[in-house]
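User: Predict the structure for this protein chain, please.
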Amino acid sequence: MSDSQFRHEPDPDDPDWMIWEIRDPERFNALLGKFRVRRETENLARCRMWPQPIHSNLSDVVHGGVVMSFIDISMFAGSRMLGIEHAGRSVTLDLTCQFMAPGAIDKPLDAEVEILRETGRLVFLRGLVVQDAVKVAAFSGTIRKASPPR
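Assistant: Here is the predicted structure, written as structure tokens:
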């Protein structure tokens, strides 16, 4: 998959954020809906999604699988914002998540993604999923960087 299959450009409605969307609406990433990312510091990026009723479970809160998917995609989008080239074509090696509180529907959900260490092929990350002042989940994960396109 080439990086041209992603739409990654300034959001015309909010220039502080970058659009992070897969161009093919039939790919998994499209299920999360509107997705934005921005660089906060040298080692920290913030990703945002807007949970809708389709993202809810029977308790009318954000489904845990949606939170995990949001984290997974945020690791790549955040890595890209922090300078990891070809992040969209990399793969998840591991992802650990601790759920701490339910996420509400119809309120922005943010993932704060921090790069802990980068090697030649691996990126070690950790972060929090937050909604307003509520910590929804904590996570850590490792991605294997893709080889540059030939």
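The longest strand covers residues 134-144.
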